[in-house]
Amino acid sequence: xxxxxxxxxxxxxxxxxxxxxxxxxxxxxxxxxxxxxxxxxxxxxxxxxxxxxxxxxxxxxxxxxxxxxxxxxxxxxxxxxxxxxxxxxxxxxxxxxxxxxxxxxxxxxxxxxxxxxxxxxxxxxxxxxxxxxxxxxxxxxxxxxxxxxxxxxxxxxxxxxxxxxxxxxxxxxxxxxxxxxxxxxxxxxxxxxxxxxxxxxxxxxxxxxxxxxxxxxxxxxxxxxxxxxxxxxxxxxxxxxxxxxxxxxxxxxxxxxxxxxxxxxxxxxxxxxxxxxxxxxxxxxxxxxxxxxxxxxxxxxxxxxxxxxxxxxxxxxxxxxxxxxxxxxxxxxxxxxxxxxxxxxxxxxxxxxxxxxxxxxxxxxxxxxxxxxxxxxxxxxxxxxxxxxxxxxxxxxxxxxxxxxxxxxxxxxxxxxxxxxxxxxxxxxxxxxxxxxxxxxxxxxxxxxxxxxxxxxxxxxxxxxxxxxxxxxxxxxxxxxxxxxxxxxxxxxxxxx
Length: 497
What we know:
Layout: E1 12-16, H1 23-36, E2 42-44, E3 47-49, E4 53-55, E5 61-63, H2 64-73, E6 84-88, E7 93-98, E8 101-107, H3 108-111, H4 117-134, E9 138-141, H5 159-165, E10 168-174, H6 180-189, H7 193-196, E11 199-207, H8 215-225, E12 229-234, E13 261-266, H9 278-282, E14 286-291, H10 294-299, E15 302-305, H11 311-320, H12 323-332, E16 336-340, H13 342-347, E17 350-352, E18 363-365, E19 372-389, E20 396-408, E21 418-420, E22 425-426, E23 428-430, E24 434-437, H14 446-453, H15 466-484, H16 487-495
Helix pairs in contact: 1-2, 1-15
C-alpha cells in the first residue's frame, strides 16, 4: 500500500534512561519498519552532540546518526532532521552548527545559559513542524537521560520536544548495564505529570539470556511503574549499524592477522567521522584495526590518518607520542599511507593558519609525504560530491566537511587522486602508495577500495558492495525489532485521535 493511502500516525519519540542505551539504533529500526509498512517516516533529533557528521544534498551539516536513520527510512537527509549539532572541540567547548551552518564556538557554561535559549527552542520546534508537514510519522530521538532535573528548564531535546510535537513516548532502558528497575522507575518518577502522561511504553534493550526468565521482571516493572513494557529487545552482534559514539572504538580490533589486508586507522584524540571506515570493517578481505601503537602501525599493510576536529593539535600529539615517526617509517617501508580530510592536511608539507582557526601558530610543518600546502579558512565547506578516480570512469560519491583549502605545490611530481563531475581534480596521489583526499565516505565506493587493495591482490577475495550490505542490515534490524516489540500495540497508540 502506498503512503498516500495510509492513515496519519502520531509522532513517536524514543527517550532514554541514560546515554548509549540504544535510542539511535532503535529509531533507525522504527524508521525502517514504518517504511516497510507503507508509510513515509522521517527521523528527528532536536540537538545532537557528536564529531560524526554528514553533508546533506543541499550542502549543509547534520549529525551522522540522523543521516543513518534517514537512510533506513529511504529518504534524503535534511537539516530539519537535526537542526542543532554540537561538535566538541575540547572537553569544555564545542562548535555550534545551527540549521546546518556553523555559527561559532561556545563553552558548556555559555551554551546552557538561559539567554538565547528560547531562540534555540523556537528554531528546533520550527524544524520539527516543517518535517512533520512532509512526513508520516516523524520518529523523534531524545538525548541522554530524560531526568536530568538540573537541566530541565533549559531542555530542548527531550520531554519538552515531546510536548511540542504531541508525540507518544517510549522509554528505552539498557538492561545490560544493570540496575534496569531503578533506572526506569527513577526516570519516570522524576518527570512532572504532564510529561509522565506522554510515556506510553517501556522498551528494555540489550537483553541477554533466556527471555522467559524475565517474564516476572516485566510484570513487576509494569506494576511498579504503571506503564506497559512493549518490548524486550535482545542484544545483537550480527547486525551492523553505524555507531554514533566513538566509545565503540574501544572494542574494535587492535591486532593484525595473517591472510587479510591489514588496515590501521591511527587513533587521534579528536578523531571525527570514524564511520568512514565501517565499509572496511565489514569487507571480508580486510582486517581493520584502530591503534595508537607505533608497532601496530609498522605491521599494517595500509595506514590511514583519519579526519580530525583539530588538525593542529592532533599533529602536535602525533609528533610527541612517536606516531608521526611510525607513519613515516611505514611509508619508507613501502606501506600504503592514506589521509582523509584532516589526515590529508597532515600528510602535506605545510599547514597555514593565518586566521587563528585552530591555533596561535600561523604555520606548522606537516609530515611532508604529499607535495601540498593547506590554508585553514574561517568558512566551512560542506557538500555532497560525485566523482571518479583519476584515470577511471566508475562513478563514485561521498561528502566533504572541512575548513581548509589544499593546493598542489608548483612543480610537484604528483597528480589528483580523484576527479569531480566537472573534471576538476581533487586530492593528491604521490607515487603508488601515498594519497590524500577531503572526501568522506570514499571507502564506501567499491572502485576506490578495489584500487587501494590492488597491490595486495593475492590476499583479496570478491569485491564488497557496502551499500547493498547496509540495506540488508537495515532490513535485518527491522526484522529483529519486529520480533521482540509489540508493533500492533504501538500502531494502536500512534493511531489514536
